[in-house]
Amino acid sequence: xxxxxxxxxxxxxxxxxxxxxxxxxxxxxxxxxxxxxxxxxxxxxxxxxxxxxxxxxxxxxxxxxxxxxxxxxxxxxxxxxxxxxxxxxxxxxxxxxxxxxxxxxxxxxxxxxxxxxxxxxxxxxxxxxxxxxxxxxxxxxxxxxxxxxxxxxxxxxxxxxxxxxxxxxxxxxxxxxxxxxxxxxxxxxxxxxxxxxxxxxxxxxxxxxxxxxxxxxxxxxxxxxxxxxxxxxxxxxxxxxxxxxxxxxxxxxxxxxxxxxxxxxxxxxxxxxxxxxxxxxxxxxxxxxxxxxxxxxxxxxxxxxxxxxxxxxxxxxxxxxxxxxxxxxxxxxxxxxxxxxxxxxxxxxxxxxxxxxxxxxxxxxxxxxxxxxxxxxxxxxxxxxxxxxxxxxxxxxxxxxxxxxxxxxxxxxxxxxxxxxxxxxxxxxxxxxxxxxxxxx
Length: 441
Fold this sequence. Notes:
The protein has 441 residues and is of the alpha/beta class. It has 3 domains: 3-130, Methylthiotransferase, N-terminal domain (Rossmann fold, 3-Layer(aba) Sandwich); 145-374, pyruvate-formate lyase- activating enzyme, CATH 3.80.30.20; 379-439, CATH 2.40.50.140. 35% of the residues lie in helices and 21% in strands. It is built from 15 helices and 18 strands. Helix 8 packs parallel to helix 10 (213-220) and helix 14 (310-323) runs parallel beside helix 15. The radius of gyration is 22 Å and the shape is globular. The chain starts with a strand and ends with a strand.
C-alpha cells in the first residue's frame, strides 16, 4: 500500500478540492499520512492567485522535494491553481516536480499518483469543466467545521483577477446536491457550515436563470445538526432584500456578511470592472445595519491599483474611517499575467502599494480595538476549537469570526469542555484582534 501526503495552500475553495482528492486517493487504497518523510508521494495543492501565493507554493514545493533524498518520496506532484495556470511550465522550471496536474484532472489523481510512484510521470490537464464538484471528501481541518463549495469559476471578469482564466466560467451545483452534501457533513459531526464560491451571490444564475443563494440557505437551515451557517464572498451589487430577510430571520445563519468591495472611488472601480460606486456602497451598508443591527461586516480592499492617485487613496481611507468595518483585510495590488490590469499604464511602485495597504491595516487595528472594547462585559456564543496548553485556556471563535481570516477568543473554564461544542463566554478583555474571556455559567 502506497502512502501519500498532501499539503494544501490557498483559499477555502482550494481546500475543498484537496479534501475531494484525499477521498479519491483513500478510496483507491492509498494510505494518507501527514508525515511527508514517510510518504511515497507528496502532493502540493497550490494557490496561484497572486504573487505572494505563488511564492508560497514554490517554497512548499522545494521544501517537499528534500524528502526525495531524506525520506521515501518517489513522486512530487503539484495540483491546484498554480498547476492549472502554468501547466507544463511548472515541471520545466521546477525540475524537482515529477508531475503537474490541472484541476480538470483531479478526478484521475489516484491513477496519476500510482503511475508517478512507479516511474511513469506524465502531466495531465483535463478540461476545467471536468472538475467534479460533487465528489465526496475527507475533511482536512477541524471535524466540526466544513466549507461547502456551491460553485466553481467566475463570470465577473474583474480586470485584476486571473480566476476566470484559471477556473473558467461559473458552474453552480444543484441545490439538492449542495443540500445532500451538507446533510452528510452534519451526520458526520459538522456543526458549522461555511458556504463558499468565487461569488456566492451569483450562485444558481447559470442553471436556474436567477441567483438562488437565498433559496439554498433556507434549505440548508432545515438540516438537523447544523448550528451555525456562515456565508463568504457576497458581492455588494447582488445583495438584495431577499437575502437580507433570510439572514435576518433564519436562526442558524450567523449575523455575518463578507462583502469584498476592493475600493470605493468610482474611477478605480470602473477600471477594476466592478459595479457600483461609493454612494451605492454607503447606502447598502446603512441598509444592512438598519435591517440587522448586530451584523458583523467584513470586507477586503486593494491598494495601489494602476493609476490610483493619492486623492483616490485618501478617499478609500476616509471611507474606512467612516464605515468602521468589523473585519477588514487589505492587500497591495499584484499585477497578474494575462489580466487587463497588468497591461494598464500608470503602474504604481511596490513600495507605495505596500505602504498604502499597511496604512489601511493600521487604521483598521484602531477600529478593531475600539470594537473589541465595546464587547467587554457582553456574552457571545463561541465554538470551542481547542485547548492551549501553554497559556492553560480554551480557544475558539465567536459568531463574529470566520476561520483563518478573523480573530479568536481565549477563555478560561473551571470545568472540562468538549472540543467542537458551543459555549456562552463573557468577554473580559481584548488583545489586538483577539478577545479574552471566561465561560459563562
